[in-house]
Amino acid sequence: MMEHPENDEKYKGLIVNKGVTQPPSVNPYLKKRIKRKTNSAEEYVEGILSGNRTMLSKAVTLVESSLPEHHELAQSIIEKCLPHSGNSIRVGITGVPGAGKSTSIDSFGMHLLKNGHKLAVLAIDPSSERSKGSILGDKTRMERLSVEQDAFIRPSPSAGSLGGVARKTREIIILCEAAGFDYIFVETVGVGQSEIAVHSMVDFFLLIQLSGTGDELQGIKRGIMEMADGIVINKADGDNIAKAKIAKRQLQNALHLFPLPESGWTPEVLTYSGYYNIGIEEIWDMIDRYIKFVKDNGYFYQKRNEQSKYRMYETINEHLRNSFYNDPEIAALLLKLEDDLLHARKSSYAAAKEALERYSQLQK
Ligand code: GDP
Description:
3 domains, seven-stranded parallel beta sheet, kinase, kinase activity
């Protein structure tokens, strides 16, 4: 049978071509692409160990996720990466906003990369959930580093509590180390509790200071100074050089009043310019000397051990707290107890005891 009667000889001059099958209007591959393949823990670990950045990023996203199904997979990945972790120098970096943390990290990082190292920059910013988007670890703030293959920059996880953020950051450190990053920076803003969290996960704690602000020691919390293994005064360039030198002397004098830290290392004070790349080598020389010093006297390993213990207790505490407060019956009881307190029907201690006893019963 003829396909088209119009092609019959009697219709002269008229030819109808055979039709062409139209391609489907929906991309047949789209379905496959939308339905993302979920990788197994083994596949993630294999990717991470071979230095695959996409796999590392995806695994970090799983660690950061609050979905229960991600949690299990993330924990399994972390556990498998653990034997491959620990081989990095972890440096905590703190300083008030504007001290020049990101400018400095950019310069420090480029210095390390030039010397053949691989660097991961992480951040702890427990306020990031409130401020919607972290001001730390933002790639746009580290212009040179952010385009380097050997640098991995990740903003702060935005889990609500500091404990949660800190735990996730520690887990991310494990993944980065397994992926071959031999330097890890953990950045935090110099405003309080978050320094303690950072201090509990790094080998060297670096405090970035500014000069030329009048009383040089004003605004630095004594506790933060005591935690520092090195204090570096930024923006020692141009007219600021003289002021930076004065600040250095003042800080050195202040540090002499503190007892010698457990590490046996006397914290050093240096001046530099992150922006103009002056004095960067001296800072890394100081950090290298510190690491050698504490490895020789054993403090390096002792501190890491203590950090592991701290991590275990922190995990237990967080688990207990969540299990307690997330129990619907306890939540209802607490509301009732709050009301009892308000009307002076019970003391705080009696109310706490009642809630805890009810929780123990629920666990049986
Ligand atoms: P952060 O808030 O601590 O991360 O600080 P930034 O790195 O964003 O720096 C704050 C401001 O100080 C920016 O305008 C930088 O350009 C400037 N700055 C940073 N480092 C230096 C430096 O070494 N010298 C000078 N003169 N300015 C700097």
